[in-house]
């Protein structure tokens, strides 16, 4: 992992996976949760930082998990985590100082006790988001399967799907990559993950895939394996559980074939990350 602040870089060992997309509602928190627990199920030491403290979806899930572990008395692993919220200070310098201190403090406490550190970002362009992008080893950008989401990265021709221009978030990540390469030659692996993919609309999917392939090429990103639109990815949230936990009578959710497919999708993504 490389932490960067201006020109300073510091090396240490855990791999930092950042879930980032300036567009909201694409599945950052959902994938953060499932990657965290999928990696843990694979035997890795995992830890989490919720940088979207105002919404707090990632940390709320982990608190739900702690409560479930306590009340159910099941042997459930509860990963260590921190929540970092945006500062409310009116002075921009003080705001950034406060956010940097919260961020660096959380990283410092977790980096030596985890093999993977999962960072969930808020949508929009934020200082905490920029800090996280600057230290990613792997950036995962979930994209819903449609042009509204694809166009956040760049504009594509509506006939041949060639790339007409790169949009702000795509450009921002490209600049980040270039900066990292300049500073220490490290860069990061940028993975685009199509999320909430349904089994319907094959024609539309082909068009989106063409556009995304062309865009990934221009952006220096890689298209990873897909994640389907599955109720199980949201059904267990309130209990702080996932498809990687034992779903017995206490959970009120019966394991189905779709659960195994959901598990497989997350494990495939983990395999892709570690390829
Ligand atoms: N693969 C999936 N299958 C089913 N539902 C999903 C899936 N991925 C995300 N969702 C649902 O889509 C909604 C948005 O997902 P999520 O909150 O993870 O996105 P986000 O990118 O973190 O949003 P924000 O930008 O607001 O933080 C949630 O209701 C979530 O339960
Ligand atoms: Mg979120």
Q: What is the fold's blueprint, element by element?
A:
Elements lengths: L1 E4 L2 E4 L3 E5 L8 H14 L4 E5 L6 H16 L8 E3 L8 H19 L5 E5 L6 H8 L3 E7 L2 H4 L3 E3 L6 E4 L1 H17 L4 E7 L6 H18 L2 E2 L8 H4 L21 H17 L2
Helix pairs in contact: 1-2, 1-9
Could you characterize what this model shows?
The strands form three sheets. A seven-stranded parallel sheet has the order 5-4-6-3-7-10-11, with helices on both faces. A two-stranded antiparallel sheet has the order 1-2. Helix content is about 45%, strand content about 20%. The protein has one domain: 3-Layer(aba) Sandwich (Rossmann fold), CATH 3.40.50. It has helices spanning about 30-40, 55-70, 90-110, 125-135, 145-150, 170-185, 200-220, 230-235, 255-275; strands at about 1-5, 10, 15-20, 45-50, 80-85, 115-120, 140-145, 155, 165, 190-195, 220-225. The relative contact order is 0.17. The two termini are about 15 Å apart. It contains nine helices and eleven strands. The protein is an alpha/beta fold and about 280 residues long. The structure holds adenosine-5'-triphosphate and magnesium ion (MG).
Strand order of the largest sheet: 5-4-6-3-7-10-11
Give the quaternary arrangement of the chains.
Answer: single chain
**Please, how many helices?**
9
CA-based gyration radius: 19 Å
Helix/strand-derived category reads: alpha/beta
CATH class: Alpha Beta
Shape: globular
CATH T-level fold name = Rossmann fold
Along the chain, the helix and strand elements come as EEEHEHEHEHEHEEHEHEHH
Architecture per CATH nomenclature, i.e. the level-2 architecture: 3-Layer(aba) Sandwich
Superfamily at the CATH H level? P-loop containing nucleotide triphosphate hydrolases
DSSP E strands, number? 11
Q: Average pLDDT value?
A: 92
Strand content: 15-25%
Task: Tell me roughly what share of residues is in helical segments.
Answer: 40-55%
- State the low-pLDDT regions, or none: 1-11
What ligands does this structure carry? adenosine-5'-triphosphate, magnesium ion
Overall structural domain count: 1
Instruction: Let me know the largest β-sheet.
Output: 7 strands, parallel
Q: State the end-to-end CA separation.
A: 17 Å
């Amino acid at each position: 992992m490389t932490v960067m602040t201006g020109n300073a870089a510091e090396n240490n060992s855990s791999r930092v996976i950042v879930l980032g997309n300036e567009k909201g509602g694409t599945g950052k928190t959902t994938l953060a949760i499932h990657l965290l627990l999928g990696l843990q199920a694979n035997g890795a030491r995992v830890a989490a930082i919720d940088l979207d403290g105002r919404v707090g979806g990632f940390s709320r899930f982990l608190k739900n998990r702690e409560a479930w572990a306590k009340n159910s008395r099941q042997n459930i692993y509860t990963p260590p985590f921190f929540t970092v919220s945006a500062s409310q200070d009116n002075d921009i310098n003080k705001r950034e100082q406060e956010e940097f201190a919260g961020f660096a403090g959380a990283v410092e406490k977790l980096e030596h006790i985890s093999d993977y550190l999962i960072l969930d970002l808020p949508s929009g362009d934020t200082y905490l988001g920029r800090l996280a992008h600057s230290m990613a080893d792997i950036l995962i950008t979930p994209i819903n399967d449609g042009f509204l989401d694809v166009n956040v990265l760049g504009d594509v021709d509506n006939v041949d799907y060639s790339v007409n221009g790169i949009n702000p978030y795509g450009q921002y990540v490209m600049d980040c990559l270039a900066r990292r390469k300049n500073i220490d030659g490290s860069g990061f692996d940028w993975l685009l993950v199509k999320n909430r993919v349904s089994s319907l609309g094959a024609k539309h999917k082909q068009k989106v895939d063409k556009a995304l392939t062309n865009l990934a090429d221009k952006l220096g990103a890689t298209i990873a394996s897909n994640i389907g639109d599955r109720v199980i990815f949201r059904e267990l949230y309130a209990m702080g559980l996932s498809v990687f936990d034992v779903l017995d009578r206490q959970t009120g959710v019966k394991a189905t074939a779709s659960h195994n497919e959901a598990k497989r999708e997350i494990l495939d993504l983990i395999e892709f990350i570690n390829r």
